Amino acid sequence: MILVKTKDLKKYYQNGKIKAVDGVDIVIESDNIYGIIGPNGAGKTTLIKLILKAINKTNGELHILKTVRMGLVSEKHALPFDSYAYEYLYTIGILAKLKREVILKRIITLATQFGLIEYIHSKIKTYSSGMKKKLQIIAALIDYPDVLILDEPTANLDPVFRIDILEQIKFLAENKKITIIICSHNLDELEKIVNKIIMMKKGKVIYNGDLEDINNINNHYEVVIHTDNDDKMKKYLKNKHMEVTNEKPITFITDNIDMISKQIIKFAYQENLIIKDFYRKKRTLMDSFTYLNSNRGH
Length: 298
Prior knowledge:
Order of helices and strands: EEEEHEEHHHEHEHEEHEHEEHEH
CATH architecture of the largest domain: 3-Layer(aba) Sandwich
Mean pLDDT: 94
Largest sheet: 6 strands, mixed
Low-confidence stretches: none
CATH topology of the largest domain: Rossmann fold
Shape: elongated
Number of strands: 14
Strand order of the largest sheet: 6-7-8-4-9-10
CATH class of the largest domain: Alpha Beta
């Protein structure tokens, strides 16, 4: 089901001098986990604000299913530190116009799920950073939204809380059928849980599709080779105008792996070199991100 759809969506500032979002076409469908990525200033936060209708568009189309409820977990929290966590969540439920019994049930359910039930009657100022982030997520879930948007959900958290929060996000998507949208610079973490990627650059979307397909855009491969005479092999590769990115182990980039592999094997045979290791590195989301934001990618 299509929840959000944009067509040529634009948000300009200073009479068009700053094109924060510049002609964006995206579709957000239910039952997916989206990762919105891009360099600083790419337009990610502005796009999220447009989807939330926190700001007005300059031009273009933005269609949101009328029945869609959205929850937001911002990077910078504004929690009432002197309040008790239970009171804070109850207030959120009241603002969402939920019945008292529904609020109480959801607070207990969510606090238990996120491991905060023992601390639910403690003041928020006694919470650690990870606990505060969990409290933010619970507050956003009180109304059981159809879409949950998280901005840097694991930033500045220790590894234990990072793993726990990522597992909870995945659980919400798989078991509660909540569509997740995550803005994050931590591509290693995103790669573990998302199945859709929206990559932005200078206000435009430069990739919008499945995570598993993004690496097919890059026809450059990173190859590692190790021989009994790496100096000779390195010299050979440079003579072949290969881009050597690392010397120990020798790592180079090629856009024709089949041809260069045959040439390397032939050279090794002619020079009596023993090839000890020779393989293509597995691509990661970071590799694709780097490629699409480089001169080779665009």
